[in-house]
Structure formats: C-alpha cells, structure tokens
Design goal:
Length: about 250
C-alpha cells in the first residue's frame, strides 16, 4: 500500500523516520484514550490539526505488539477560527460508518465560484454530528457536521497545509480517490455489502484492501514551529483565491 500511495497520491509529505515514529506514538496515545489501545490489523488515518503542521498520516500495524508504521502523509486544511460559523476541527477518534452515509460531490460552484467539495464525484466522508468548539464570538461548543472531503481543485487545493476550512478536514483530490478506490476506511461499508446490501456511494471499480479500517483520529501536537517536511503554501497558491473563497467548506 505504501508503493500505491507513492504512485497514486500527488500531494505527499516526506516525513522523516523519527517523526513517523513520534506520530505513531501520538496515534497510540489517542487510541488508548478512546479505549482502542489494542486496535491493529487495519489502516487508520490521523490528522494533526496544529496550525504549524496541517497534515494527514496513514498508519498500519499487524498486531498490538507492533509499532505503528506510516504508509504516507499529505497536507490538509482544518478549521480556521475567527469567522462566524467556523469551528476548530474536533479532536478525538471518529468512527466512519454507513450509519452516517457518505455521499458524492455534484461539482457545482457556490456564489463565490468555489466547488467546496471538489470536482464531480469526489467522495465526502461523513462522520456525523459531533460537538465542535466554536471559533467565533465567545467560543463554547455547538453541534457541527464533521466531514473529510476534497476541495476546489483549481482555487483551494494549492492552499492545503494551512487552516482554511469551517471545521472539516480538506484533503487533496488524489488522496480522496486513494481512500475511495482502495476502501481504506470502508470496513463497515464492506460489511454491509457482504451482508447483501447495495450501497450506491461505493465505486463499481473499487480495488479494495482486505485490511480496511474505520477510524479517523484528530490530534493537536501544538508544535511551536513549522517542520521543514510540512511547508507552507507558496505565494502562487493565493493568486486564484477569490473574494469570499475562504468561507467554503
């Protein structure tokens, strides 16, 4: 799967081995805190929402005795506080289940010319209603719909690597397709298919992994400085952002 990630995902981060181990330890701590410390034998995605990181990592381990092994990493965009209806991306372990059915992007634009979910047929990974920390007013907590999805390929994808969403996790289109094509987080979906259910949201041409997972973990490493392996978007990335373009999610 590591080789496929390199071949199929165009937005990748070159994370040093020492950092891979450190993030594996952060992942394990988050799982222990969620009473999932023995989780193994399946893929898992983890996001570091720290403003100085903004990255997603894919991990795997065969047994609970093994260390977590990183498959790949990509830049993301998480919740940017300071504007009405913008949440901080919630922390914790989130279960990807057809109880909150995924759907696919229509590829249409909003009033600012932004395709908030990306181009047509991009999959929106839906984790249901969760409590989110408000990033406006006096703060506090409110329900928010937590999703992981692609973003506008022409205007916003180049800005991945900074906080820029309303609370969801924005990912590169190629990573969205990678998750979708191989079913890395689709274990519960596949169980329903094997039970005889027909799920329209699943691709007909899937090449699914037999060790799919079902969890997205969000942490905050609170790093004070930006690591070299997670660079900021360049100046050119901002050139296509229209007025109001940072209000799409």
């Amino acid at each position: 799967m590591r080789k496929r990630f390199t071949q199929e995902v165009t937005r990748r981060l070159n994370v040093p081995a020492s950092e891979q181990r450190a993030y594996g330890e952060r992942l394990q701590k988050a799982l222990v805190d969620a009473n999932l410390g023995d989780l193994a034998g399946e893929y898992i995605a983890m996001v570091d929402r720290a403003p100085n990181v903004q990255a997603l990592f894919i991990y795997f381990r065969a047994t609970p005795a093994n260390a977590w092994m990183m498959i790949g990493a990509s830049p993301v965009g998480t919740g940017l506080p300071g504007t009405y209806d913008h949440f901080l991306t919630p922390l914790g372990v989130f279960h990807h289940s057809p109880d909150n059915m995924d759907f696919r992007a229509e590829g249409t634009t909003n009033e600012n010319g932004i395709r908030g979910y990306g181009h047509r047929d991009m999959r929106i990974y839906d984790f249901g209603w969760v409590d989110g920390e408000r990033g406006w007013g006096k703060g506090g907590v409110s329900p928010m719909r937590f999703q992981m999805h692609a973003t506008d390929p022409d205007r916003l994808e180049a800005l991945l690597g900074i906080r820029h969403s309303k609370g969801c996790v924005r990912i590169p289109a190629s990573l969205n397709t990678f998750f979708d094509q191989h079913g890395l987080l689709d274990d519960d979906y596949q169980a329903r298919v094997e039970a005889g259910k027909s799920l329209w949201v699943l691709r007909r041409d899937r090449d699914i992994t037999p060790i799919a997972g079902r969890y997205l973990v969000v942490i905050d490493s609170a790093r004070k400085t930006r690591p070299a392996w997670s660079p900021l978007p360049g100046r050119k990335a901002w050139s296509k952002l229209p007025k109001g373009g940072d209000t799409a999610d």
